[in-house]
């Protein structure tokens, strides 16, 4: 693969989002090492609360197209109540196997406190259910308000971890997929 395409989906709608800053940092690093990139800002898309009867509502077709074009997808979310954000879950509900199966996915979580692990675990579970290949390296940004200064990382260790996520998204963009998971075989939507 000459130039992998890395797409980031930001699960934060906040104007000064640390998640968005971190994803941009990962995308910048991916771009520096030869990838093309796209940052899907959910604030710019019209995605009503997902309803299976309205699978093509709003900008759902655009979202799916942009995710489907990716060789690697970076998902980023702030931690909300021990999990990931509703805007990211809603966006993922509009997507499915066509967008994620055998696609490399990197995970990034941001929290105001010191514990982001459950957010990463929940995102990983959703990706496994979609039969995506999730990069083992993940980026956690605890106590986010102390990690940035004027929109830039002030903590070089965390900045390096986020850069590594961008690098792995490029390096593993064409990895051979694993066999189907038990979770993906059971992931069928309700018909009623």
UniProtKB/TrEMBL annotation:
Its EC number is 1.-.-.-. Keywords: Oxidoreductase. The keyword Nucleus does not apply. It is an enzyme of class 1 (oxidoreductase). Pfam families: FMN_red. Residues 5-144 form the NADPH-dependent FMN reductase-like domain. InterPro entries: Flavoprotein-like_sf, FMN_Rdtase-like_dom, NAD(P)H-dep_reductase. Signal peptide: none annotated. Its cofactor is [4Fe-4S] cluster. One of its GO terms (molecular function) is oxidoreductase activity. Belongs to the SsuE family. Isf subfamily. This is NADPH-dependent FMN reductase.
